[in-house]
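Budget justification aside, the reviewers requested a transparent look at the raw inputs and outputs of the sequence design task funded under Objective 1. We therefore reproduce one unedited record. The lines immediately below are the structure tokens for a 505-residue chain.
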């Protein structure tokens, strides 16, 4: 449809119709003729590759920005930006609240203050807080409560101001499994109350489990919708990888995977068997400059393969690093990053001390064993910037950082050991989406310098974004080795990967 033309009838029964939405930033066309219908009581999933226009759509729907062309309408006609700002609520992965106000005060923000009365918590507010499980925190400053609670406050505030359209933007990317479950319970309640609910997420399992319809956005338009029995992880994965242009990924991947003639693989594993039989006869090689993801459900052996290379699982077979055999040699040239940050980080130390924690002694102490404090201080500052750690200073406690920034410190520790190979178990577990991208970029830069990255991952889409190749494990066997840039086979590959991951749900 031509942008700017509102040809479709207005949706009936409390729905919202988006027609021909267009938005450009300079020469970038973020949205170009997007049409979508939103129905009350339905949870609509939105997926799309990075840069597809999802955030732009959210901002326009939330009344934060105007579209250049197109129309948003309800039964009564055109929805103005003011109408949208009033009725649409965005639930962010990092809630936008006033940190120094209490939970209860945040709920009242925006409510009118009269000449004599400040807005007061009334009985309905109390009931709302009670049903949302935040009443116990009503007098706590928002900065002191957990992320999951802050999100509930954000939802509660939207309900209290009678919002009708709820946009959940990657809401659970930094939540634990239990917290995620609670959040989705709220999301379903909000929908069942007759509101319009949109869930934007990279997580295919959440889309399948919690929505009835998924719209795929690509290049600023709706590029396919899935409903009913057609809504499977595999189908979403196929849609998502369909539009990847060959040169979008493969140029880089081809350059990276290019081997010097005669250069042995960085890592070579053959006849590799787990003593306790989690996997057997595994064989693969990893080239210099390659980022490889190991994917598989718990029990598939994928996690154990990675851990065995790190030396944490008893295994036997042939393992070589740059042609030299032996587990001990591999371990000496490898750095491992654990899935749980509490294993990597020292919670009683500062950000700076943590980042330098795995440096060899000569780098941090003089020949008499005294710490080179001034040098360490300036080195820590440099590394904090290099690894994009968002910290106010090197001397603040590591525990004050967000999960994503703590993980960057854990990865920096490992990279600063200057290993030839880095092994990571779930490197972005509990990490917000922005930090995820930065972490993958850090790993990519590390590999580009001639090293290798092998990581155990659980999220398919990320694997496509982050890795050159995916090793899929099923029942203890290496079932497929898939180049993410192999566009001839990519749909089939997406299906294999999706199936392997789907078993995990
Ligand atoms: P997504 O959320 O799907 O990753 P976005 O809506 O953020 O996509 O971006 C769509 C396109 O618009 C991208 O090419 C992005 O670089 C561009 N874009 C988004 N916001 C801005 C902005 N404020 N200024 C310039 N370009 C932008």
């Amino acid at each position: 449809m031509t942008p700017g033309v509102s040809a479709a009838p207005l949706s009936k029964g409390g729905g919202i119709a988006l027609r021909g939405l267009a938005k450009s930033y300079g020469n970038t066309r973020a949205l170009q003729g997007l049409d979508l219908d939103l129905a009350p009581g339905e949870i609509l999933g939105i997926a799309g590759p990075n840069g597809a226009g999802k955030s732009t759509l959210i901002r326009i729907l939330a009344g934060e920005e105007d579209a250049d062309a197109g129309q948003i309408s309800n039964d009564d006609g055109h929805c103005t930006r003011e109408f949208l700002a009033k009725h649409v609520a965005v639930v962010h992965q990092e809630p936008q609240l006033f940190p120094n106000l209490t939970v209860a005060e945040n709920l009242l923000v925006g409510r009118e203050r009269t000449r004599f009365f400040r807005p007061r918590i009334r009985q309905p507010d109390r009931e709302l807080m009670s049903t949302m499980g935040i009443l116990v925190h009503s007098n706590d400053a928002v900065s002191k409560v957990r992320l999951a609670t802050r999100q509930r406050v954000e939802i509660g505030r939207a309900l209290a101001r009678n919002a009708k359209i709820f946009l959940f933007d990657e809401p659970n990317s930094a939540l634990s499994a239990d917290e995620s479950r609670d959040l989705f319970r709220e999301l379903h309640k909000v929908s069942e109350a007759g509101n319009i609910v949109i869930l934007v997420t990279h997580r295919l399992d959440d889309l399948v489990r919690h929505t009835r319809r998924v719209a795929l956005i690509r290049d600023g338009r709706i590029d396919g919708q899935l409903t009913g029995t057609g809504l499977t992880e595999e189908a979403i994965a196929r849609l998502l990888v369909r539009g990847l242009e060959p040169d979008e990924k493969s140029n880089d991947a081809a350059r990276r995977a290019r081997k010097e003639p005669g250069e042995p693989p960085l890592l070579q594993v053959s006849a590799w068997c787990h003593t306790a039989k989690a996997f057997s006869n595994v064989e693969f090689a990893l080239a210099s400059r390659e980022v490889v993801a190991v994917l598989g459900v718990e029990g598939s052996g994928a996690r154990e393969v990675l851990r065995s290379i790190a030396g944490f699982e008893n295994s036997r077979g042939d393992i070589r690093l740059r042609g030299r055999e032996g587990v001990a040699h591999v371990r000496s040239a490898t750095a491992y990053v654990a899935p749980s940050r509490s294993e990597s980080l020292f919670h009683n130390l500062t950000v700076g001390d943590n980042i330098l924690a795995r440096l060899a002694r000569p780098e941090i102490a003089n020949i008499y064993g005294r710490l080179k404090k001034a040098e360490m201080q300036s080195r820590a500052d440099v590394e904090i910037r290099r690894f994009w750690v968002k910290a106010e200073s090197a001397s603040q406690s590591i525990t004050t950082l967000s999960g994503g920034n703590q993980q960057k410190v854990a990865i920096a520790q490992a990279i600063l050991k200057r290993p030839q190979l880095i092994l990571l178990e779930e490197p972005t577990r509990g990490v917000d989406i922005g930090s995820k991208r930065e972490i993958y970029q850090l790993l990519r830069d590390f590999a580009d310098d001639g090293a290798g990255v092998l990581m155990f991952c659980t999220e398919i889409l990320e694997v496509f974004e982050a890795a050159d190749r995916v090793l899929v494990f099923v029942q203890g066997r290496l079932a497929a080795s898939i180049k993410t840039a192999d566009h001839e086979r990519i749909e089939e590959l997406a299906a294999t990967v999706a199936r392997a991951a789907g078993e995990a749900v």
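The two ends are 38 Å apart (CA to CA). The longest strand covers residues 28-38. Computational costs for records of this kind are itemized in the attached budget.
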